[in-house]
Design a protein that fits this description.
Length: 159
Amino acid sequence: MFLLYASNSIFNHCTTLQVLQAIMSQENKLQEVMTGLAASVFTFMTSSESSTVFEESGITEAELANKLIQILKKHRYPPTKVPRIRRFAIELAIWMMKEREESIHTFKDLGMEEVLEGVLETTSELESFNVFSGTAGLNRHNLTIHSLVETALKLLEDS
């Protein structure tokens, strides 16, 4: 339902500010959900709108990039309590790198390539699902985590 309102700039703008702040300050499930929400919402924003959100939140894109790296490092192995957090962090990083070339350099400087190689080595079947019943996966993602990592690595390589 939320994505239906993505074109409503006021709703989108205010909510996205809160989402960014939650990614930076929360842990575990709330951070997982907010990272996934940001990865989805930012794709519907113009470059100007996303710049405004970062500006008004007081969070720089470099700070968010650093937080995404921290999330991936913290969850070196796929966690059962937040099984989608690595996927969402990579999806958001991909959006950031596609949106602004400076983000590619930021992620490179932060060691994203090495972190992504670690993700490739430690992926789990658990990360293939987007709907769960308890810890059992019910509905598979269209893209594998390997595909996402390969996309991110290609963006890092091509700059």
